[in-house]
Structure formats: structure tokens, C-alpha cells
Amino acid sequence: MALKTLKTETRGRVAIITLNRPEALNALNSELLGELRETLAQYGADEKIGAIVLTGSEKAFAAGADIKEMQPKDYIGAYMEDFFEGWSAVAETRKPVIAAVSGYALGGGCELAMMCDFIIAADTAKFGQPEITLGVIPGMGGTQRMTRAIGKAKAMDLCLTGRMMDAEEAERSGLVARVVPAAELLATATKAAEKIAGFSLPVAMMVKEAVNRADEVTLSEGLRFERRMFHSLFASEDQKEGMAAFIDKRKAQFKHR
Ligand code: HXC
């Protein structure tokens, strides 16, 4: 498929997806959504890919849902198409996905970054949920994922005032995992993805699934889920290899990667 709104490349076992609508600061329209869903599905099915980096431009990861496309919508139309539902495919990607965020990550852009497994931010990054300034509320998970990530006080502050939060505040608040100089953003995110992609892929996918469970179930259910998954890995060749390699003082050669 010839892509119009994304650029893609692979480096070894890492796929890098770059949002590419520079004329609109990577505003998220339906064409971009379709291409992103298709691309994620392809990398998800490609056994040579072990981790994915999602990034944007230096100025904007994404400045939100495309306001020009959204403006004429009416209620029944939005309801019938289940507007924004398609974005859940990003959160449902089973392989690890790192968001590498430089510049603006606003509205749907911030929500897209939060659908990834963790965010590495450039020191230039700015996060916000400015939907209230447009007469709407976040519609791609902002009120839910942000509240879980940074707590009620900060999430209310950002969603009610529409103000932006810089990278330093975002790291302090727990929204982003690391902040790096802008020039090092993609290299840092790619290196982290390479590290993940070097491990056993099913194990990395189970880590993702288990951590995500923490947002959905009670502590006792989550602990039970984690322990059962942990037990199941003793049936895997990669557990035998990983532990044997430690004892033999050599690098593990995982089969499922
Ligand atoms: C469509 C957008 C856009 C967006 C920017 N552009 N953001 N187009 N949708 N979300 C376009 C501009 O119209 C402009 O096009 C070009 O990109 C450059 O933007 P400028 O505003 O000229 O750049 P700048 O002055 O540097 O300001 C950057 C900015 C500003 C602060 C990020 O663009 C901005 O405030 N954008 C909107 C941010 C926002 O409100 N996002 C949330 C959207 S709602 P032209 O053609 O004029 O050059 C959302 C979820 C909705 O995401 C949920 C509802 C259910």
C-alpha cells in the first residue's frame, strides 16, 4: 500500500512509523487512521518485527484530531460511525509500541501517545488536552488514560484549563518515561525498541498484557493473572534458554524472536 500520511522504515527487528502530515502538524484524520491501522496490523503479523516506534516531526508528534475534518460532523453521524472507535486498534496492538514525542502532542495527539506502551519525550515536547477550548471533551481516552497516568488533580487541571504541560512536568507527573535532548529522541527510542526486540517476543507481549491488566482489574485479580502467566512460561523454550544462558555466563539465544 502506498502511504500518504505515514512514513515507515525497519531497522533490524524494529519498525519505525512516522506520522507525516506536515501541512497540518500531523493532525489525525481518517486517512491517517486507516493507514496507521493497516501498518500496525502488518507489523503485528510480521514475525521479523519485535517492537515498534511511533513518532512525528520535530515540531509536532500530532496537534490533535483533524479539526477541519471534524467540524461539520453531527451527533447521529458521529454515533453511527462510532467516531474515534477505530483508534482503539493502536492500544490493542499486541507488540510493544514506544511513542517518541517531540513538539506538540495535543488532544488526540496526546491520547495517541498515551495508547502506546510508554512515551519517550524530547525536551521540546508539550502535552495537553485542549478539547475544552473547542467546545468538546477528549474523545480518544484522554480523560481516562491521563487520569490513570498522572492522577486526578493533574488530569483535571489539564483537561479543564486546556493548558499545555512541558516535558519536564510530564516526566515529573509520570506521563512520560524519559526525557532526552530533542536531537537524541529517535536514536534513544530506537535503542529502547531494539533492546525489547532482542528478548523473547511472546515474553515481551506477556509483559505488556500483564502491565495493562493493572488498569482493568482489582489487585488480587491482577496478581493472579500475572502469576498464571508467569507459570505458563515454564513451558517455553525461551525460559529454558534464558536461565541456562545465565548459568553458563553467555548471552541468551531466544528462539521466539
Ligand atoms: C487541523 C490543524 C490542527 C488540527 C494544526 N493544524 N492543528 N489542522 N486539526 N488539530 C493546522 C493549522 O490549521 C495550520 O494550517 C497548520 O496546521 C499549522 O498550524 P498553526 O496553528 O499555524 O501553527 P502554530 O501557530 O505553530 O500553532 C501550533 C498549535 C496550533 C498551538 C499546535 O496549531 C493549535 O492550537 N492547534 C490545535 C490544537 C488542538 O486544539 N488540538 C486538539 C484538537 S481536538 P494552515 O492551513 O492554516 O496553515 C482533538 C480531540 C477531539 O484532538 C476529541 C473530540 C471528541
UniProtKB/TrEMBL annotation:
Keywords: Fatty acid metabolism, Lipid metabolism, Lyase
Broad class of enzyme this protein falls into: lyase
Pfam families, A to Z: ECH_1
GO MF term set: enoyl-CoA hydratase activity
Family: Belongs to the enoyl-CoA hydratase/isomerase family.
Known function: Could possibly oxidize fatty acids using specific components.
CDD domains assigned: crotonase-like
Entry EC number(s): 4.2.1.17
Signal peptide: none
Domain of life of the native organism: Bacteria
Protein name as it appears in the record: enoyl-CoA hydratase
Species: Hoeflea halophila
Biological processes annotated in GO: fatty acid beta-oxidation
Catalytic activity: a 4-saturated-(3S)-3-hydroxyacyl-CoA = a (3E)-enoyl-CoA + H2O; a (3S)-3-hydroxyacyl-CoA = a (2E)-enoyl-CoA + H2O
